[in-house]
From TrEMBL:
One of its GO terms (molecular function) is unfolded protein binding. The keyword Hydrolase does not apply. This is Outer membrane protein. Residues 1-26 form the signal peptide.
Amino acid sequence: MMHKSFKLLILSVLLGSLMTSHHAVAQTFGYVDSEFLLNKHPDYKLVQDELEALKDEWKKEAQNLDQAIKEMRSSLKAEEVLLTEEMYQERLEAIKEKEKEAVAFNNRVFGLNGQYYQKQMELMQPLQSIIFDAIDKVCKRFRLAVLFDKAAGPTMIYTDPRHDYSEFVLQELGIEN
Protein backbone atom coordinates (compact mmCIF):
# COMPACT_ATOMS: atom_id res chain seq x y z
CA MET A 1 0.00 0.00 0.00
CA MET A 2 2.79 2.40 0.97
CA HIS A 3 4.75 1.40 -2.12
CA LYS A 4 1.73 2.04 -4.39
CA SER A 5 1.06 5.51 -2.94
CA PHE A 6 4.77 6.37 -3.32
CA LYS A 7 4.58 5.40 -7.02
CA LEU A 8 1.45 7.54 -7.44
CA LEU A 9 3.22 10.45 -5.77
CA ILE A 10 6.26 10.09 -8.07
CA LEU A 11 3.97 9.76 -11.11
CA SER A 12 1.99 12.85 -10.20
CA VAL A 13 5.19 14.86 -9.59
CA LEU A 14 6.57 13.77 -12.98
CA LEU A 15 3.31 14.58 -14.77
CA GLY A 16 3.15 17.93 -13.00
CA SER A 17 6.71 18.78 -14.01
CA LEU A 18 6.02 17.71 -17.62
CA MET A 19 2.93 19.91 -17.70
CA THR A 20 4.88 22.80 -16.20
CA SER A 21 7.82 22.44 -18.59
CA HIS A 22 5.42 22.17 -21.55
CA HIS A 23 3.63 25.30 -20.31
CA ALA A 24 6.95 27.13 -19.94
CA VAL A 25 7.92 26.30 -23.52
CA ALA A 26 4.57 27.55 -24.77
CA GLN A 27 4.97 30.96 -23.14
CA THR A 28 5.51 33.71 -25.69
CA PHE A 29 7.83 36.65 -25.31
CA GLY A 30 7.91 39.85 -27.32
CA TYR A 31 8.96 43.45 -27.18
CA VAL A 32 7.80 46.89 -28.19
CA ASP A 33 9.68 50.13 -28.62
CA SER A 34 7.80 52.66 -26.50
CA GLU A 35 9.84 55.53 -27.92
CA PHE A 36 8.80 54.50 -31.44
CA LEU A 37 5.17 54.24 -30.33
CA LEU A 38 5.22 57.65 -28.67
CA ASN A 39 6.80 59.29 -31.72
CA LYS A 40 4.13 57.77 -33.97
CA HIS A 41 1.20 58.93 -31.82
CA PRO A 42 -0.25 62.23 -33.11
CA ASP A 43 -0.86 63.60 -29.58
CA TYR A 44 2.82 63.22 -28.68
CA LYS A 45 3.79 66.10 -30.99
CA LEU A 46 1.20 68.32 -29.28
CA VAL A 47 2.53 67.40 -25.84
CA GLN A 48 6.11 68.03 -26.97
CA ASP A 49 5.16 71.41 -28.45
CA GLU A 50 3.40 72.48 -25.24
CA LEU A 51 6.36 71.37 -23.11
CA GLU A 52 8.81 73.16 -25.42
CA ALA A 53 6.78 76.39 -25.20
CA LEU A 54 6.76 76.17 -21.38
CA LYS A 55 10.47 75.39 -21.29
CA ASP A 56 11.24 78.36 -23.55
CA GLU A 57 9.13 80.66 -21.36
CA TRP A 58 10.85 79.50 -18.17
CA LYS A 59 14.29 79.67 -19.81
CA LYS A 60 13.57 83.26 -20.80
CA GLU A 61 12.67 84.07 -17.16
CA ALA A 62 15.91 82.45 -15.99
CA GLN A 63 17.89 84.40 -18.60
CA ASN A 64 16.21 87.64 -17.49
CA LEU A 65 17.29 86.94 -13.92
CA ASP A 66 20.86 86.24 -15.09
CA GLN A 67 20.85 89.42 -17.18
CA ALA A 68 19.63 91.46 -14.20
CA ILE A 69 22.49 90.05 -12.10
CA LYS A 70 25.02 90.93 -14.82
CA GLU A 71 23.65 94.47 -15.03
CA MET A 72 23.79 94.84 -11.25
CA ARG A 73 27.43 93.66 -11.24
CA SER A 74 28.31 95.95 -14.13
CA SER A 75 26.65 98.91 -12.43
CA LEU A 76 28.44 98.15 -9.18
CA LYS A 77 31.80 97.96 -10.96
CA ALA A 78 31.18 101.25 -12.78
CA GLU A 79 30.12 103.11 -9.62
CA GLU A 80 32.51 101.36 -7.24
CA VAL A 81 34.77 104.36 -6.77
CA LEU A 82 31.81 106.67 -5.99
CA LEU A 83 30.28 104.43 -3.29
CA THR A 84 31.01 104.33 0.38
CA GLU A 85 32.02 100.96 1.82
CA GLU A 86 28.54 100.62 3.33
CA MET A 87 26.79 101.40 0.02
CA TYR A 88 29.11 98.98 -1.78
CA GLN A 89 28.30 96.19 0.70
CA GLU A 90 24.54 96.91 0.38
CA ARG A 91 24.71 96.57 -3.40
CA LEU A 92 26.86 93.45 -3.12
CA GLU A 93 24.27 91.97 -0.75
CA ALA A 94 21.49 92.84 -3.23
CA ILE A 95 23.42 91.00 -5.96
CA LYS A 96 23.82 87.96 -3.72
CA GLU A 97 20.07 87.99 -3.00
CA LYS A 98 19.31 88.18 -6.73
CA GLU A 99 21.68 85.23 -7.32
CA LYS A 100 19.89 83.23 -4.61
CA GLU A 101 16.58 84.11 -6.27
CA ALA A 102 17.91 82.87 -9.64
CA VAL A 103 19.14 79.58 -8.14
CA ALA A 104 15.82 79.10 -6.31
CA PHE A 105 13.90 79.75 -9.53
CA ASN A 106 16.00 77.24 -11.50
CA ASN A 107 15.58 74.61 -8.78
CA ARG A 108 11.84 75.23 -8.48
CA VAL A 109 11.28 75.04 -12.24
CA PHE A 110 13.98 72.73 -13.62
CA GLY A 111 15.01 70.83 -10.48
CA LEU A 112 14.54 67.13 -9.78
CA ASN A 113 10.82 67.44 -8.99
CA GLY A 114 10.43 70.89 -10.49
CA GLN A 115 7.50 72.42 -12.29
CA TYR A 116 8.81 71.32 -15.70
CA TYR A 117 9.07 67.69 -14.56
CA GLN A 118 5.60 67.87 -12.98
CA LYS A 119 4.07 69.36 -16.14
CA GLN A 120 5.79 66.72 -18.26
CA MET A 121 4.31 63.96 -16.09
CA GLU A 122 0.87 65.60 -16.16
CA LEU A 123 0.84 65.90 -19.96
CA MET A 124 2.38 62.49 -20.71
CA GLN A 125 0.29 60.40 -18.29
CA PRO A 126 -2.91 60.30 -20.40
CA LEU A 127 -0.95 59.43 -23.54
CA GLN A 128 1.02 56.72 -21.72
CA SER A 129 -2.23 55.26 -20.38
CA ILE A 130 -3.67 55.03 -23.90
CA ILE A 131 -0.53 53.30 -25.16
CA PHE A 132 -0.35 50.93 -22.19
CA ASP A 133 -4.02 49.99 -22.69
CA ALA A 134 -3.24 49.16 -26.33
CA ILE A 135 -0.20 47.16 -25.23
CA ASP A 136 -2.36 45.25 -22.76
CA LYS A 137 -4.87 44.38 -25.50
CA VAL A 138 -2.10 43.22 -27.86
CA CYS A 139 -0.55 41.06 -25.12
CA LYS A 140 -3.90 39.43 -24.43
CA ARG A 141 -4.66 38.94 -28.14
CA PHE A 142 -1.32 37.26 -28.82
CA ARG A 143 -1.23 35.52 -25.42
CA LEU A 144 2.14 36.97 -24.56
CA ALA A 145 3.63 35.95 -21.26
CA VAL A 146 6.25 38.70 -21.21
CA LEU A 147 6.66 41.87 -23.23
CA PHE A 148 9.82 43.94 -22.96
CA ASP A 149 10.28 47.60 -23.77
CA LYS A 150 13.21 48.03 -26.12
CA ALA A 151 13.48 51.75 -25.28
CA ALA A 152 13.62 51.18 -21.52
CA GLY A 153 17.34 50.68 -21.40
CA PRO A 154 20.13 48.22 -21.99
CA THR A 155 18.29 45.20 -20.58
CA MET A 156 17.88 43.66 -24.04
CA ILE A 157 21.05 42.50 -25.69
CA TYR A 158 19.47 41.03 -28.82
CA THR A 159 16.04 41.44 -30.34
CA ASP A 160 14.59 39.42 -33.16
CA PRO A 161 12.26 41.61 -35.26
CA ARG A 162 9.78 38.72 -35.40
CA HIS A 163 9.00 39.45 -31.77
CA ASP A 164 8.48 43.20 -32.19
CA TYR A 165 4.82 43.89 -31.48
CA SER A 166 5.07 47.68 -31.87
CA GLU A 167 3.17 47.61 -35.19
CA PHE A 168 0.29 45.70 -33.58
CA VAL A 169 0.10 48.32 -30.83
CA LEU A 170 -0.01 51.05 -33.49
CA GLN A 171 -2.86 49.19 -35.17
CA GLU A 172 -4.63 48.92 -31.82
CA LEU A 173 -4.23 52.69 -31.42
CA GLY A 174 -5.62 53.21 -34.94
CA ILE A 175 -2.36 54.73 -36.21
CA GLU A 176 -0.98 53.81 -39.61
CA ASN A 177 2.78 53.52 -39.96
